[in-house]
């Protein structure tokens, strides 16, 4: 009788531990997901109108500047933490591999660097221990020509593909989200 009770107790303890591990992993995934969503919103603010006028580069996201071949060549991404084009990539016309596949979302200060949250908007995001993400979420912006229905070839607008990566409590937990954004006229 004691052996049966011991086996039932052991099985119950194992089930409880598995449930706890499962809920911890789910919580970690949700934290990473929310961090990635925050990075998408930060990127949209970066494109549209940054709340920090000293860091803002929203004036660069206009057709007249983006059409200039000297800004970024096809398939090229901006480099250097001081560069105004950091994390901005120009889409290839016949793209074999999207820019977000070539970007190292963990690297800092090289040509394939993603933008850390708040770098151009001045916003802050807490990271650390406990239930906070292990690292700042990051994003890149790819711009591509867009012509709406009824627009002529001279009327070029740009559509922005934003790819964001958020981290969970463990840095190995990552969630990547992608959205398309069209800048609204001010």
Instruction: Please identify the structural class as seen in this structure.
Output: alpha+beta
User: SSE string, helix = H, strand = E?
Assistant: HHEHEEEE
Beta-strand portion reads: 15-25%
What is the multimeric organization of the chains shown? Answer: single chain
Shape: elongated
Largest sheet: 5 strands, mixed
How many strands appear in the DSSP assignment? Answer: 5
The number of helices is 3
What percent of the residues sit in helical stretches (DSSP H or I)? Answer: 25-40%
Rounded average pLDDT: 83
Uncertain segments are: none
N- and C-termini, Cα separation: 77 Å
| Radius of gyration, whole Å | 22 Å
Organism: Oxalicibacterium faecigallinarum
Pfam families: PilX, PilX_N
Protein name: Pilus assembly protein
InterPro entries: PilX/PilW_C, PilX_N_dom
Descriptive overview:
The chain is an alpha+beta fold and 186 residues long. It has 3 helices and 5 strands; from the N terminus they run ααβαββββ. The protein has helices at residues 2-48, 63-66, 99-102; strands at residues 88-90, 115-116, 138-146, 157-167, 174-182. Strands 1, 2, 3, 4 and 5 form a 5-stranded mixed beta sheet that branches. Strand 4 and strand 5 form a beta hairpin. The model has no long low-confidence stretch (mean pLDDT 83).
